[in-house]
Specification:
about 550 residues; Chitobiase, domain 2; TIM Barrel; 2 domains; elongated; binds acetamide
């Protein structure tokens, strides 16, 4: 005969194994991305004014962030206490380097009626544990205004959690439509709730140069104020005009700091050798036909030079000067140099470029492209950084230190990983959030394609064609919000969520626990959180 106690334990075990929401809090726990394991226990911990936060030494900064996060909705700031003063009615943050089963981003969370304990190896793990606590509380905890008549209950659970992948990213594109600082910061807040850890910012393109470079002031004096962005059918001269803009170096420092406080690394993308119209208009000598270009009015320069750099030694030096200032501003390991969609046909037509190719003993334009990227790779490697480029950098030979971002399907990622290079999977098929997410006639104008929520959720970042011993080279996933058709924060949020919530789970949760029905059930509650945060998400079908 099975007694009540052992039956309960059997049920608990099944819950852990299945990873599904069940037990006494089955309906109240809806964490996204889904934790590695959850054990549901009876009862609640209730946060009140008298609750204390206990955190020592390096955990103190995370305690402040927790107190800051809870204060607006609760209407009070939790007080700190030292461990010896208080056992119960406390939220404890503990750093413990011995928690060997957790990665640096992982955490353990124990909630009982008496206390909440978050343990982690590193501060970033504590931060992720706090994000989970926020998702265990009523959704209104995310309100920026005081919420009355709510009991701030955290259901009793035991969670062990850590990410599947180390690169869980999104990309935004202020080159096509400038994104004001405040919108970027808000975007980062929402990323943090989903445990994303990387934000790629596409800072330069044909439509604009968006970062102050002290050595080359015209990049922003001219390149940030281009007349128009991508031409759409039906656009008039007036409707094509967009406000320009750029980030000062002080803006960038603030942005990097803000993201770092949320354990998000900013990956700057400085495009080369194509998508460089903003730079060529500002400094025509780095393009192919300097004299012709300088005669053109700004609005006519847009197509001039067909926006591909001339990879002369002087151009290499110019772009390396730019990268030097970029490295000063962005402390992260990865610098993205674009590398995609270069129309090297212009080099083929240029006598000067053909002569350069011969002088460098290169056989074709693909090799010249590869030579140019290798100059950047060597330079970045010398400065202890890693080059990232779109998968076109495989053509003509991959630079030794390069990490490949696979966007034209998975093949580039497969080839690079099997050759021992690190890879971020970002294929159009599953991660281009500038694509339509429903019937085109019912959606705001998008660039094309069709990427519904379920397809994002179904993405498996490790292709079967990657050899077993090479799968560690798949660093993770990234979702792209290209900006040709996205000009406001509201539209960006609409394109991002809930698809980015699905991608967050692809990047974080174990492959074996993925279950679209479970995701949708949790998402319906998760959308309440996004609503409270004022995120303009698209309602799922
Ligand atoms: C890309 O979408 N051209 C990387």
């Amino acid at each position: 005969m099975i007694n009540k106690f052992s039956l309960k334990n059997v049920v608990r075990l099944l819950v852990i194994v299945a990873g599904t929401a069940a037990g006494s809090h089955g309906q109240t726990v809806s964490v996204i991305p889904k934790p590695v394991s959850i054990e549901y226990l009876d009862g609640f911990f209730t946060i009140t004014r008298s609750t204390r936060v206990i955190a020592e030494n390096d955990a103190a900064a995370e305690a402040s962030k927790l107190i800051d996060a809870l204060a607006p909705a609760m209407g009070f700031r939790l007080q700190r206490a030292i461990a010896s003063q208080r056992r119960d009615d406390a939220i404890k943050l503990e750093l413990n380097g011995q928690l060997s089963q957790l990665s640096d981003e992982g955490y353990e969370l124990d909630v009982s009626a008496e206390q909440v304990v978050i343990r982690a190896r590193r501060e970033g793990g504590l931060f992720h544990g706090i994000q989970t606590v926020l998702q265990l509380l009523p959704a209104t905890v995310l309100s920026k205004a005081r919420v009355e008549n709510v009991t701030w209950n955290v259901p009793c659970v035991k969670i062990v959690d850590y990410p599947r992948f180390q690169w869980r990213g999104l990309l935004v594109d202020p080159a096509r439509h400038f994104i004001p600082m405040e919108d970027l910061l808000r975007f980062i807040d929402t990323m943090a709730l989903h445990k994303f850890n990387s934000l790629q910012i596409h800072l330069t393109d044909d439509q604009g140069w968006r970062i102050e470079i002290r050595k080359y002031p015209k990049l922003t004096e001219t390149g940030a104020l281009m007349d128009f962005t991508t031409m759409r059918q039906g656009d008039t001269e007036a409707s094509r005009k967009r406000p320009g803009g750029y980030y000062t170096q002080e803006d960038v420092r603030r942005l990097v700091r803000y993201a770092a406080e949320r354990y998000i690394t900013i990956v700057p993308e400085i495009e080369m050798p194509a998508h460089t119209g903003g730079a060529i208009v500002s400094y025509p000598q780095i393009g192919l036909y300097p004299r012709k270009l300088s005669d053109l009015a700004p609005s006519q320069r847009w197509k001039a030079n067909e926006r591909v750099l001339a990879p002369r030694p002087e151009t290499v030096a110019f772009m390396q000067d730019v990268l030097l200032e970029v490295m000063e501003l962005f402390p992260g390991r990865y610098i993205h140099i674009g590398g995609d969609e270069a129309n090297t046909g212009h080099w083929k037509k240029s006598e000067e470029m053909q002569a350069l190719q011969q002088r460098l003993d290169l056989t074709d334009e693909a090799e010249l492209h590869s030579w140019f990227i290798k100059q950047m790779d060597t330079f970045l490697t010398r400065h202890s950084r890693r080059l990232v480029g779109w998968d076109e950098i495989l053509q003509g030979g991959l630079a030794p230190g390069a990490t490949v971002m696979s966007w034209r399907g998975e093949q580039g990622g497969i080839t690079a990983a099997n050759a021992g290079h690190d890879v971020v999977m970002a294929p159009t098929s599953h991660t281009y959030f500038d694509y339509y997410q429903g019937p085109a006639e019912q959606e705001p104008r998008a660039i094309g394609g069709n990427l519904p929520l379920e397809k994002v959720y179904g993405f498996e970042p490790v292709p079967e064609a990657v050899a077993a011993e090479k799968t560690r080279h798949i660093l993770g996933v990234q979702g792209q919000l290209w900006g040709e058709y996205i000009s406001t924060a509201e539209h960006r949020e609409y394109m991002a969520y809930p698809r980015a919530a699905a991608l967050a789970e692809v990047g974080w949760s174990p492959k074996a626990s993925k279950d679209y029905e479970s995701f949708l059930a949790r998402l319906s509650r998760h959308l309440d959180r996004l609503k409270v945060m004022g995120v303009n998400y698209r309602k799922p079908d």
